[in-house]
Amino acid sequence: xxxxxxxxxxxxxxxxxxxxxxxxPNQIQIPEPFVNTAYFYHVTELMSRVAKSLGxxxxxxxxxxxxxxxxxxxNKAYYKADKASYWEGRQGADVFALAFxxxxxxxxxxxxxxxxxxxxxxxxxxxxxxxxxxxxxxxxEQNGRHDIIYKIMNQRDFPSFGYLLDSKNSTLWESWNxxxxxxxxxxxxxxxxxxxxxGGIKADPSSPxxxxxxxxxxxxxxxxxxKTSYNNLFxxxxxxxxxxxxxxxxxxxxxxxxxxxxxxxxAGKQKIKSTDGQTHLVKQSGDKYQTEFQSGIYQFELx
Length: 303
Known about the structure:
It is a single chain. This protein has 303 residues and is an alpha+beta fold. It has 2 domains: 3-194, Glycosyltransferase, CATH 1.50.10.10; 200-302, Maltose phosphorylase, domain 3 (Sandwich). Helices cover 34% and strands 19% of the residues. A 5-stranded mixed β-sheet has the order 3-4-8-11-10. Strands 5-6-7-12-9 form a 5-stranded antiparallel β-sheet, covered by helices on one side. A two-stranded antiparallel ribbon has the order 1-2. Helix 4 crosses helix 6. The longest helix has 22 residues, at 32-53.
């Protein structure tokens, strides 16, 4: 990264022009320096990890120091302690701070609760643009609030994806209110949650190329079945589940050749009953229960 970008102003914020959180539903424009700075911090954090992995000790420390300064100045400029929220307490502002690790550890739960209250106040609708929308779902997913994600994704009135569907659209709009292009894929970023949340297919950060991966499907009560698949370098990963009339979850997973997977049982489930004659040992890890699978196709019930 050239010196032009790692040389930062005295107060640590960027003021260059950017689109910010483009196309918010009610024209709520989070300040451009806020969005710029959040992404600047995110980039320095990524670069510090890259430098560390490559053994570039000096570069690692440089990016770490820059990130620490940005984080401190960002919080000084935008955090409102009396509201436990950022900027003017809007959904997107708290989302950027939470998603990129800009919230100090001691304030994290407070800011998360502030975000949850904001969502409740607007009846679980999006208040974000193209950048904040996928980050909102990511923050909620990281904190186990798939129930809230489902509420948001299943809304039928403005602004929501259900609103677009009920307007008889066959393509995604550029903006929630219909201004601009009517064939714009940028809000399609939310489909990631269908795979990582409902289906539960997730990369293992410690295993490049998904040679080992996670399958952690969510038991969303309003849904009766899920079928997801993803082709990685080794083949097809499948995660499917179906709820029978008694409420029991029947699972089918596929682990490609030369890979392995950790299956994490949904909350409230602790045991597996095989339906294909195989035995699977479930172990407790913290507050979760999980088991390991090698290559193959497996069918089982969750108890």
